Hints:
Blueprint: H1 2-18, E1 23-25, H2 34-60, H3 65-70, H4 78-86, E2 95-102, E3 105-112, H5 113-121, E4 126-128, E5 135-137, H6 138-141, H7 159-166, E6 173-175, H8 194-205, E7 211-218, E8 221-228, H9 239-255, E9 259-263, H10 274-293, E10 298-302
Amino acid sequence: DNDHSFLSQLQSSFYSYRNSSYLNNGSKSDDPYYDRYVYDTQYSWNNHINSCIDSYLHSQIRIDSYILSDSVNYSDSYIYSFVCGESGNSSESESSSIRTSTNGSDLTIRESSNDLDATQKYRHLWVQCENCYGLNYKKFFKSKMNICEQCGYHLKMSSSDRIELSIDPGTWDPMDEDMISLDPIEFHSEEELYKDRIDSYQRKTGLTEAVQTGIGQLNGIPIAIGVMDFQFLGGSMGSVVGEKITRLIEYATNKFLPLIIVCASGGARMQEGSLSLMQMAKISSALYDYQSNKKLFYVSILTSPTTGGV
């Protein structure tokens, strides 16, 4: 049937690639130990490649009924086209060479340029673990709450992913999305202007600032929530971040809502000088009224990375 033929073709493609030669000898040396060195090097290299491919085949791709049932057409799937298409034609492409020198002799390790292009092309399908460097299939990685299936390490989350995980679907109502940072002290930098850095991070993350604030429901209970994002200038707190959090606290105070703030920050934003330091006092004052005067429920969640600056 189709499932069996697909798996057979996938397996044969990998094993034919695995059994191919990875080392091409350059000019031979008169050194009597040269042949032994080449043999040991080639043996170690082949063992390493075999181990990587076995791990990739059995642990990373996870070709099981779950993936097969989700693929309507195998020839259109990413994995099928990568293994049976890109890798199968790699022998026809031009190869780049990496040379290493030992005892006056060159050993040439040939790598297919098509393989490098394919790796970049399908990079968006995988997430590499920061702890064990294993690859996690992104389609399943998000449903596992960013936990590495190889070692159980908890990887960092973006603010959008954390909001999606925490809030009931369809209940998120963001606040103050149009607030953006200016350059109040005209911060001087030889590398890049502060305004240009803000624009760069806005394009990179899709956020306007280092925190997202809004209203949502948690198991049907209305709450106010603010989530900081370390990907935006290290989650640093400038005037806009402080103002958005303060407005969120004041809104929760007036509406008598539970408040959750998820922190992921490196501290005050140095590009805004003392104005960024003032935000802590402003937020603390609003929180004092929320907790001490109104006696409302507040939860502060410290996530990685959070330093002592916030």
